[in-house]
Specification:
single chain, alpha+beta, Butyryl-CoA Dehydrogenase, subunit A, domain 3, Aminopeptidase, 5-stranded mixed sheet, 3-stranded antiparallel sheet, 8 strands
């Protein structure tokens, strides 16, 4: 009822502002959208501000892809930091270094104008939803237009505040959840496709299955992220037994292990805003309260970057990874039809499992982070790389991304913070002794010696 009241109030303010808006707009302008943005920043009235913000968002939605690119470039060029104002503010502060007003003024003029523009656009009805969609468009353009990264940083900066943990609400999704949300679960599932309503029912309605999601008040009836959980008696090594129709349902009270087998981010426009770490830890606490017999909290995760990394290494004749695979191994991998052949599977198991352990435990990118994005997420959250599972995912996607390999990351509540701090400080990956032994069996590149 409160949400409805404030929504109606905001709509009323917008309607009143439209009368004021018409008198201020130059409808013959060559750049009506940018003029609207300037008007929004220069205005002071609440009613006209809300109306202008809504008009900006409506005009943006009418733009084609090329015009949207031009709009983002204009945001970068025309709504950035006023360099002269910053220079003047610095000079004032240097003249009076203890003047708190001068310091506040420097902070104010150092902020790009587009940040305030984004804040004011958020006043429009449905403004937050629209801004998330606008950033999604921007992300699509970044690869070919890297200079727009500074515009994206402003969106990310503001979204990190608007979508921080204090605003998020966790809900368990079950068969009584509104159908509109259930349909979005099917649509957003990004790891293991949900094939229809019967498949969804098996994932949320049975006693040994759970699904939890984060919601935000500004995105009514839409999800931010969700995690699917299987309750089991042991740590699983493959996804098929979890997803299969032909399995015996386990009484929740008999389960000792909670398996996080799928985590899906639902809003592309919120990429880079961290939700998953909070969601997993909150779900762990929820399950511990509900089911005290649960002792082990573990994932069954894909390794989406492994096959791509291996292909790159094998193309480099100087790579020690290339020497780890013999001609038979290479031939089998190149054939693309080895899966299902027991002899070929055994041959590749001995070669690929250690390579995957090496890739996850010792492979690093230019920033000193583990190479795989899923590993980076779980290791960064304080989980331990527990086990590498051969042919854990025999699906076409699992074979193409990781040659069928899957991984268990263990969330041991006693060591989560220690593991997280160690990874953040040194890049060290917490891993079981078995995984480390496998990783060490693969030769590392020799360091390049500087010329004397």
């Amino acid at each position: 009822m409160n949400t409805s009241f404030f929504g109606e109030l905001l709509t009323s303010i917008t309607e009143q502002g439209r009368a004021l808006l018409e008198a201020r707009l130059n409808r013959s302008s060559d750049e009506p959208l940018l003029d609207l943005c300037e008007a929004l920043l220069s205005g002071r009235g609440e009613a006209s501000g809300v109306a202008i913000a809504e008009e900006v968002l409506c005009e943006y939605r009418r733009l084609g892809k090329g015009d949207r690119l031009a709009f983002f470039k204009a945001l970068r060029e025309r709504f950035g930091v006023d360099a002269k104002a910053v220079e003047t503010a610095i000079a004032r502060l240097q003249d009076k270094p203890k003047d708190s007003a001068a310091l506040r003024h420097l902070h104010q003029v150092s902020e790009p104008k587009r940040q305030e523009l984004i804040r004011r656009l958020n006043l429009a009805p449905g403004g937050t939803r629209a801004l998330v969609d606008i950033r999604s468009d921007l992300l699509d353009l970044l690869k070919d237009n890297p200079e727009l990264r500074e515009v994206d940083q402003d969106f990310e900066h503001l979204f990190s505040s608007w979508f921080n943990r204090g605003f998020l609400v966790m809900r368990r999704i079950d068969w009584s959840t509104p159908a509109a949300i259930l349909e979005k679960i099917i649509k957003y599932e990004a790891v293991h496709e949900i094939t229809g309503w019967d498949d969804l029912r098996r994932r949320i309605s049975l006693e040994d299955r759970r699904l939890y999601a984060f919601f935000h008040p500004a995105l009514v009836d839409d999800l931010l992220i969700f995690v699917e959980v299987a309750l089991t008696r042991e740590i699983p090594s493959a996804i098929a037994p979890i997803l299969t129709e032909e399995r015996s349902e386990l009484a929740a009270s008999e389960a000792t292990t909670a398996v996080f087998y799928s985590i899906s981010n639902c809003q592309k426009g919120l990429r880079g805003i961290s939700f998953g770490n909070f969601l997993i830890k909150q779900v762990v606490e929820e399950l511990r309260r509900e089911l005290p017999a649960l002792k082990t909290f573990v994932t069954l995760s894909p390794v989406p970057g492994f096959a791509r990394w291996l292909k790159k290494e094998l193309s480099d004749v100087k790579s020690p990874i290339a020497a780890h695979l013999d001609e038979v191994d290479r031939g089998l991998l190149a054939s693309d039809d080895w899966a299902g052949n027991p002899d070929a599977e055994r041959q590749l198991e001995h070669a690929l499992v250690p390579l995957c352990a090496h890739y996850l435990a010792r492979g690093k990118d230019g920033k000193g982070r583990t190479l795989d994005p899923v590993a980076r997420f779980h290791i960064g959250n304080g989980a331990r790389l527990e086990r590498v599972n051969w042919l854990g995912d025999r699906s076409r996607n699992g074979l193409s991304q990781a040659h069928g390999l899957m991984v268990n990351y263990l969330y041991d509540l006693r060591y989560i913070e220690k593991n997280h701090e160690s990874y953040a400080a040194t890049g060290e990956v917490a891993a079981s002794s078995a995984v480390l032994k496998l990783a060490r069996s693969v030769p590392e590149p020799k360091p390049v010696l500087a010329a004397s």
